[in-house]
Amino acid sequence: MLSAANIDPSFIKNRIAKRVAKELHAGSVVNLGIGIPSLIPNFLDSKSQVYLQSENGLLGMGPTPPKEQIDMDLISASKQPVTLGIGSSVFSSADSFAMIRGGHIDIAVMGALQISEKGEIANWSVPGKDILGVGGAMDLVASAQKIIIAMTHATKDHVPKIIQRLTYPMSGIRTADVIVTDKAVFKIKNDSFILEEMAADSSLDEIKRLTDAHFTVSKNLQTMLID
Amino acid sequence: MLSAANIDPSFIKNRIAKRVAKELHAGSVVNLGIGIPSLIPNFLDSKSQVYLQSENGLLGMGPTPPKEQIDMDLISASKQPVTLGIGSSVFSSADSFAMIRGGHIDIAVMGALQISEKGEIANWSVPGKDILGVGGAMDLVASAQKIIIAMTHATKDHVPKIIQRLTYPMSGIRTADVIVTDKAVFKIKNDSFILEEMAADSSLDEIKRLTDAHFTVSKNLQTMLID
Amino acid sequence: MKIGDCAKRISAQDAVNMIQNGDRLLVGGFGICGTPFTLIDVIAESDHARELTIISNNLGETGKGLGKLLISKHIKKAIGSYFTTNRDAVKAWNKGELEIELIPQGTLAEAIRAGGAGIAGFYTKTGVGTKLAEGKEEREFDGETYLFIRGIRAKIALIKADKADTMGNLVYAKTARNFNPMMATAADLVIAEVDDIVEAGMLDPEQIVTPHVYVDYIVQNDRYEKMGGEYVERGKH
Amino acid sequence: MKIGDCAKRISAQDAVNMIQNGDRLLVGGFGICGTPFTLIDVIAESDHARELTIISNNLGETGKGLGKLLISKHIKKAIGSYFTTNRDAVKAWNKGELEIELIPQGTLAEAIRAGGAGIAGFYTKTGVGTKLAEGKEEREFDGETYLFIRGIRAKIALIKADKADTMGNLVYAKTARNFNPMMATAADLVIAEVDDIVEAGMLDPEQIVTPHVYVDYIVQNDRYEKMGGEYVERGKH
């Protein structure tokens, strides 16, 4: 079994992205944040019928084009070149956020700096550092039908990111529904954390050590599917 | 000289429309209300570069099509078939009223039931009758850059329509800028009425008799140009 | 996806079966321009969907479009901007058989947009100082008075587009666009009646006005066809 | 109208001459996608238009687009949603040389739309309970808390479209649309930089995104051309 210390960061990130991909059912309209969420398209079948919305004004984002087809007038919210999937549409930022704010995004997948044990999200700013960017994070937190957090379980220095109370500024009063880390999958129901899946290379002890929050273990605890 | 009693209604309406047409300068974006204002396009040169906005979602309304080219998916706010002028565009009702409310209409020409001597407009409802329709009148009154009223000077029974105080419900707190009737042209500046033009077949006495409001006579009183 | 495989496509009857007594409906159109004629006709023939509150700019025209639902007595209340030209609406109102709530046209359009865009309410100058401002909150900004207007939503929207693709993306025909795009965003269930269904990928991404995310079901307008520029009932010409 | 007769066409220099010291500008673009590169370059070279307040989602990228105006020290204040990735913005802010007002991206987009649509302000759930809600009015609707946001306008908007016709109607290229259409509605003076100018009548009325009424002047993007999918300075490749 690999120990966490030996796992390279891209392996961990891909594991998280791969597991989140399984949460995205056919027909759902999904907004993917920057960082780990942006890896998810690599794990979606082209026939998955998951429709990717990009808040800069695109529904039906297709994969990264080959270099010779790059058009920088067609980018994702991460400012990367993308393509137009079948049935895609482009629109203004006002129309894009009308779609988001109006509750028309089924699932938002986003990274986080911290999650409280109630599911509160901190993902835009670090105290004491410059508050110079928020992007669309707060709009998505406020209005997506379902919020999935995709993040490493702890910081590089093994500091828990799932904690009793946020110490970083929160992104909104709406709480997350699912947390997917490299160690575990939690669901949040009625303000309480439930451990639903655990990675084969982790243990309940390790998860408890790296989680500074109350959680219950599901009666149907599964091994996290990351094949 | 024709006496007012002998003039047929369409002659009077066309006279008013013809005079208003002269107020519409090249490059202006104009919304025309129902009734007399809808006759104005007949008096606009095709090269006038007056851009007609129709609040149901059209900028650049062209003339009525011949019968064989009628398309009832392309109508004016009066629900009459129209055509697409060169450089025209179609848009939703929300975008159309964003254009109106945002102050992007240079001139709104509308009929009125009454105008007060301050220029207040009553053009949507008659007291004691059913209040069942308002349409876009209040949006245009509130937000057009300039409001021109096109109406007969008095009712069929010779009751003045320009009166000291409105007795009919008003359409907004914004006041009219120009009043064109079959007898006269008034401009309203600083809440006061100024008679600027008088029809050749009218007289100051007749206008005073048919106007129940204070007005001053311009030092440059002109004969109303109606051909 | 082949046109026959369009998962969102249902019959007009199945669509109308989703409407229940007392429901609140957004219905697209300006007069009868951009109106879901087939869906309205099927409602007129049904008996399970009465006492409706209809939010629409007008109630069609006398005996046409939504005007049919006045004759068939399906409408309890109408919310819109202009009902004067439909004499059945005036008659029903006079008899106390129809409630009417009048909203300036631009305020109606913006309120529906707000309802679909997660905007609880907004301030507009339209209507200030008029009878339609009665009971509404006023507030001053930069020396001018504005009225507060709440967003409008409904349980169901019945809209009319020119074409849908099999995914449910919509394009409209000229001024038949009118209230339809906003209504598509502001209901829990959105049913789009269309003249044509094309395969996904056939509509230009830059030209799609209503992205598929807003459309739950597609109904083919199979009772009316365009003849001489007007929609006429099939077989009745 | 022939392209040469386009009355709204002016040079980038004439356009920039209309900007004055201390002006408040809306500038289109998301990063450097949909950015009026030529106009920005001419501002960077000018000396009469400093101390600007720029309302834009970002300040371009480091050294590109609006990023050039940071280097040339033309910007006093930036209002937008994301400045972290432009290290010159972070540096200038740390040195106290740049004021920053942060607004969530959707709130920014909607506020500009409101500014252009005669909406004094609106209520949104975005940002409730966060640091960006500080000092903002809160109000409850249907049991949920909303923030009140004022509409945003500016003296001048510099936008970027793909094509203009000679009347000033605009169409955009894919996601280069972003903030440009709203900005076109929300300024006293709107200058559109475009790659191409076509004759009036060449653009499909159903495809025009910004009707000509919103556009005061058109400037040809003559300093940059698209090579390998990117905008590169002419003669510098």
What does this structure look like?
- The complex is a heterotetramer, with two copies of chain A (227 residues) and two copies of chain C (237 residues).
- With 227 residues, chain A is of the alpha/beta class.
- Chain A has one domain (4-223): Glutaconate Coenzyme A-transferase (3-Layer(aba) Sandwich), CATH 3.40.1080.10.
- Chain A is built from four helices and 13 strands.
- In chain A, strands 4-3-2-1-5-8-10-11-12-13 form a ten-stranded mixed β-sheet.
- In chain A, strand 6 (114-116) and strand 7 (121-122) form a beta hairpin.
- The radius of gyration of chain A is 17 Å and the shape is globular.
- The mean pLDDT of chain A is 93.
- With 237 residues, chain C is of the alpha/beta class.
- Chain C has a single domain (3-120, 152-224), classed as Glutaconate Coenzyme A-transferase (3-Layer(aba) Sandwich).
- Chain C has helices spanning 12-17, 37-45, 67-71, 87-94, 105-116, 180-183, and strands spanning 24-27, 52-55, 75-80, 99-102, 121-124, 138-141, 144-150, 154-165, 170-171, 187-198, 217-220, 224-227, 230-233.
- In chain C, strands 1, 2, 3, 4, 8, 9, 10 and 11 form an eight-stranded mixed β-sheet that branches. Chain C has a three-stranded antiparallel β-sheet with strand order 5-7-6. In chain C, strands 12-13 form a two-stranded antiparallel sheet.
- In chain C, strand 6 and strand 7 form a beta hairpin.
- Chain C is globular, with a radius of gyration of 18 Å.
- In chain C, 59% of the residues are buried.
- The mean pLDDT of chain C is 96.
- The interface between A and D is large, with 45 and 53 residues.
